Amino acid sequence: MKNILTLSLALALSSCSLGAQRDATTTYDLGAAPAAPAAQPRIRATVLIHPIAAPTWLDSPAIGYRLNYQDASRQLTYANSRWTAPAAALLTQRLRLQLATISDGGVVNTADSARADYALRVELEEFNQVFDTVESSRAVVVARASIINVARRGLIAQKTFTIQKAAASSNAEGGVRALAGASGEVIEAIVAWTATRLAEDKK
Q1: How far is CA 188 from each of CA 101, 115, 131, 183, 184, rounded to the nearest angstrom?
Q2: In this structure, how many other beta carbons lie within 10 angstroms of the beta carbon of residue 159?
Q3: Do 40 and 187 meet the contact criterion of CB atoms below 8 Å apart?
Q4: pLDDT band at residue 23, thresholds of 50, 70 and 90?
């Protein structure tokens, strides 16, 4: 009887372990940040970088997708795949890192209580894997950036950046890779645009 009970317990534990493996959630981030281009203009001013704002439906680590061929108005999420943090938080971290690499004046955030020459605000408007057919999907990242002169309290420039990138596979992993690539291009474009516009404003 003792041996039977021991065997039953071992089978039960084995079954639980296999179930846990099946239900395990895979987490993703945006990968390693690229090196700053050698020809990138330097930023001489101090820039306050606000946390990137996003709609409420993006305020979670869920990996979202839409089925355009079925119902483009529905926002769906993958069951067992997640970002390590909400998209806006991941992009804020990447934006600060890449701006810091080309800044001589330094970058600060709202928690620093430090004075800055300019403020950069970015609003994330779209961050999704979009399926046009069952087997064809693409990453869509849309962000609007605004540069503000802190002393004059004036808007220096504003621009919307849109990047779309085909996904290599029609699943969460394919969506993540495409979104990471598209968001990387958006961040690089915002950084280059910011450096150029600040250089022009300083003239």
Answers
A1: 12, 25, 25, 9, 6
A2: 14
A3: no
A4: low
- Number of helices (H) and strands (E) in the chain: give both, helices first: 3, 8
Q: Is residue 100 part of a domain?
A: yes
Judge whether residue 8 has pLDDT over 60. no
Would you state the structure tokens that stand for residue 85, as one six-digit string? Answer: 């943090």
How many domains, in total, are found in the chain? 1
In a domain, 55, yes or no: yes
Q: What does the alpha-carbon distance between residue 121 and residue 14 come to, in Å, rounded to a whole number?
A: 51
Look at the block and give the residue holding tokens 């690499």.
101
Is the CB of residue 64 less than 8 Å from the CB of residue 129?
A: yes
Label residues 61-90 b or e (16+ Cβ within 10 Å = b): bbbbbbeeeeeeeeebebeebbbebbbbbb
Name the E strands within the chain: 26-28, 47-49, 62-67, 71-83, 107-108, 118-131, 137-149, 154-166
The stretch 68-88 carries a mean pLDDT of 95
Q: Which domain holds residue 114?
A: 41-202
CATH of the domain at 78: 3.40.50.10610
Place of tokens 């993703």: 28
Mention every residue, 6+ apart, whose C-beta is less than 8 A from residue 151.
117
Per-residue pLDDT of 46-64, as tens digits, reads 999 999 999 999 999 999 9
Which are the contacts of 115, defined by CB distance < 8 A and separation ≥ 6?
46, 150
